[in-house]
Amino acid sequence: MKNREVTFYEFSDFRYHLQTDKRLSKNTIQAYMTDLELYGEFIDKYQNIKDITQIEEKHIHHYIASLKRAEFSKQTISRKIIAIKEFHKFLYAEKICDTDPAKFIDLPKPSKPLPVVLSKEEITRMIDSIKTDTPLDLRNKAMIETLYASGLRISELVGLKTSDIHLREKYIVVIGKGNKERMVPLGDMAVLALRNYLEKGRPYLSKKPGGTLFYNYQGNPISRQSLYKFIVKLAQDNGITKEISPHTIRHSFATHLLEGGTDLRIVQELLGHEDISTTQIYTHIDRSRLKEMYEHTHPLALKNKKEGE
Known about the structure:
mainly alpha, three-stranded antiparallel sheet, 15 helices, elongated
């Protein structure tokens, strides 16, 4: 270790290291140095440490906790931690410090963006716009009604067999991830759409023996890609500009159930989630939508919004 006191403001060697060894851009280097100055000020002011060599892992954790309290985003906190880790790694490599207190500091896990959800009105508009004049129309109606009534994955829907459909009892049998079987109830509209398709549509599309439920115009099982493209076009044709994904109707199914008061465990079972933590993302969507509805409908919320404009 060097026989001199090292203060937080002696960053010139580290800056040179970033320029020559790391070859980082000027903007990145400046961001690192700004983050380190704020880090150094916190350690100096709130941890009463004047010498970099005295910093321990707990002090870095205290700083990260302060960033969280200040409600910095996970992305910003990650950037600041990366700067701190690079700095302490440099000090250790240069033998300025005997240890690297930031070595085992982890970056925060990135937060998953909430999935896009269609409103009940948007779903209804899409379904109502599908005609029932041709076998393909009947198929399309049955597919979308079934997706929204059951929350199936697209891969599960295209994999359905006629033997999986139990219209009298109003349920379908689904083989999901891990080859696990589950029973999912169907609503009256989905049952009606499926019955019409089975009676008036499928016989004209099915040209080969087999139990596949949904066929394309060539008489082959419909693909995931074809169904996805149809859903995207259906949304666009109905003036919906949201960024649609293959799971959009599934997300909407789960969110609308929770909005209606369905227990989270039941939604987990219907979706075929192994872990309830996967299903819990829909509670965040539900709260987000409730907040949005409140802000657009509550008199005081509307008043405050107008006053802020």
